[in-house]
Design goal:
- The chain has helices at residues 68-72, 76-79, 84-87, 98-123, 127-157, 162-171; strands spanning 3-5, 12-14, 38-40, 53-55, 61-64.
- It is mainly alpha-helical.
- The chain has a domain at 98-176: Ferritin (Up-down Bundle).
- A hairpin with a 6-residue loop joins β1 and β2 (12-14).
Length: 191
């Protein structure tokens, strides 16, 4: 059953045929009235600070969801029709590599932040805190490896064989597996 999410209010919904009632129109958000929904390939819960950007096939911005202004400082009126790569400063890599390279850099930055927290816990002789952070560090290493593998697949496929990348993603990536160890328990006991 297809899942949908509103790029404006992030309300999730389920729709059997991806149509609005008996019409041929695409479904709209019943919560905030936004004109269209994104179909999700997987059941996804966005983080509270997630911002959605809707683009056409050429990468021109069609709409901005709630949260984009807070993340970027750009309003929808400023960006409508603009190229998404140029508008958000995502350039600097080959077209196919660009989003994956950016994701890899972000994962490395988050990993570095967790490494700094682990080092601070070690310096303070907080061994319980260090052990607690070890799980997060292991998860980040898996994320970095996953993005690195995807980037290697893109490089091997080249710009002429991007369907091979899509096939790789459809088969599932090693980083998409369940965590190797369960998350640490919540502080203060059961929630």
């Amino acid at each position: 059953m297809p899942y949908f999410i509103c790029p404006n209010c992030k309300e999730r919904s389920v729709d059997i045929d991806a149509r609005e009632g008996f019409s041929q129109d695409a479904p709209a958000c019943h919560s905030c009235g936004f004109g269209f929904l994104f179909e999700l390939l997987d059941d996804y819960y966005p983080a509270p600070t997630t911002g959605f950007v809707a683009c056409d096939r050429e990468g021109r911005i069609l709409a901005l969801g709630r949260g984009v202004f807070e993340l970027s400082g750009w309003s929808e009126a400023d960006l409508l029709g603009a190229d998404v790569v140029a508008a958000f400063g995502l350039s600097g890599f080959d077209e196919a590599r660009n989003p994956v390279q950016l994701a890899l850099e972000q994962e490395k930055a988050v990993t570095e932040q967790i490494v700094n927290l682990v080092q601070a816990a070690r310096d303070e002789r907080d061994y319980v805190g260090e052990q607690f952070l070890g799980w997060f560090l292991a998860e980040q290493r898996e994320e970095v490896a996953s993005m690195g593998n995807l980037l290697a697949v893109i490089d091997r496929a080249g710009t002429d064989n991007l369907l091979l990348v899509e096939d790789y993603l459809a088969r599932g990536t090693p980083g998409a597996a369940a965590p190797s160890t369960p998350a640490p328990p919540a502080a203060g006991g059961a929630l």
